[in-house]
Amino acid sequence: MDWFQRTLAGATSPKPPGDQIWFGKEIGTLIGFIGCVVLILGTFQLLVSTRLFATLRQAPEPAQTGRGPRWWLALVVTTALPAITFYPLMKIAPLVFFAPFALTGSLPFALSTFSEQITDQLAVWAVGTGLIGWLLSFLLRGGKPAFAPHWSGALGAAFISVGAAYLALVIVDLAFKVDFRFWVLGLKPFDARHFAYSSSICPSSPSSSC
User: Fold this and answer.
1) How many CA atoms lie within 13 A of 197 on its CB side?
2) pLDDT tens for residues 84-137?
3) Most buried residue, 12, 19, 42, 117, by most Cβ within 10 Å?
């Protein structure tokens, strides 16, 4: 804060760096952020305990019981892969993301619609890392786990859990004019523009976890 006050103009009578409330505000919104995550997990756990979502209660059945060299190699690869691909994929992300639009002559539309560069880069990184991990899984998998997915129940529980957290976010915003955040990572209520943008970019999230 002292450096900002020395180098930036605009405040006629800045307060001393030690006499400001922003740090307490950051701690408070961080606690809210943690509470938001706990609310999602708690809501999901509560839903799973009901009869409506009883099909989601399944005991895990591992594909293999031993931890041999293949298991440890898979652990190392899947742990390191997102970090290894982060900078390379983020660097080529603009070309990868906008190339299809350029080839179809709709580049101006894409540039105006997908105007958040970092979000576009993260989408390319998530999808690219997911595809690489999916290809590597054919080499590293030790067996197929006995698991019967229940997509309708899982999607319903996920929607309700995230919806409960978003409702809490809206209430906090209306009551206190703050949101859930810490430093540059934050959750805030959608406006119409960001809702449309999020809806268009959202498919990159599940595709990265296939």
Assistant:
1) 17
2) 999 998 888 878 777 777 777 777 777 776 777 777 788 888 888 888 888 888
3) 42
Which of 30, 29, 39, 32 is closest to 160 using CA atoms? 39
Distance CA 25, CA 176 (A): 12
Torsion of CA 184, 189, 193, 195, to 10 degrees: 100
Structure tokens given for 74:
């898979």
Q: Which residues are CB-neighbours of 22 under 8 A, at least 6 positions away?
A: 1
Q: What tokens does 150 get?
A: 């229940």
Give residue for tokens 């009883």. Answer: 54
Q: How far apart are the first and last CA of the chain?
A: 44
